[in-house]
Amino acid sequence: MVTGDQAAHKGARHASVRRSRPTLHPKLALRVPNARRSDERVGARQDGEVVNDAICDAIRRRRVIELEYRGTRRVVEAHAHGVSPDGLEVVVTFQRSGESRSGSPVGWKALHVSDIGRLVLLDETFEPRDGYQPGGRSDNLAEVHCCI
User: What does the longest C-alpha to C-alpha distance in the chain come to?
Assistant: First the structure.
């Protein structure tokens, strides 16, 4: 049986944990330890507009992105963002490292924006990869919102 003093102590302990954590806006993703990253744009899937803005910002500035996609961690270079022929928002990326359900952890990928969880712009920049067509032309994009 829990006494009143024990319950009060337990509640105080939980309350102190809440106070000790920094307060983050709900649209911001939690930081992943030991990764070099910029504090400029951190988006979470909770607001698609934040994610789209962060993706286009990364594309314009050629910043490498670390993201969670369908439960896997990936490091990608976003080259173009837009709408697929099926009407889905897609980002065309070159995946540098991480996991992939296709078994190919490195190479060109078209990622559905709706399946992106957390994403963080890293400090590292990149140059367009071989195979990228200027203007974002791709079989994966019927309409381009932003591109290198």
Answer: 69
53-92 pLDDT tens trace: 889 999 999 999 999 999 999 999 999 999 999 999 999 9
In angstroms, rounded to a whole number, what is the distance separating the alpha carbons of residues 16 and 11?
9
pTM of the model: 0.68
Structure tokens, 20:
């000790």
Which ranges of the chain have pLDDT less than 70?
A: 1-48
The four Cα atoms 91, 96, 100, 103 give a dihedral, to 10 degrees, of: 120
Residue 120 to residue 66: CA distance in whole angstroms: 5
Of the candidates 29, 102, 101, the residue with the CA atom closest to the CA atom of residue 66: 29
Q: Rounded distance, CA 122 to CA 115, Å? A: 20
d(CA 148, CA 79): 6
Strand ranges inside 61-135, DSSP E:
63-69, 72-83, 89-98, 107-112, 116-125
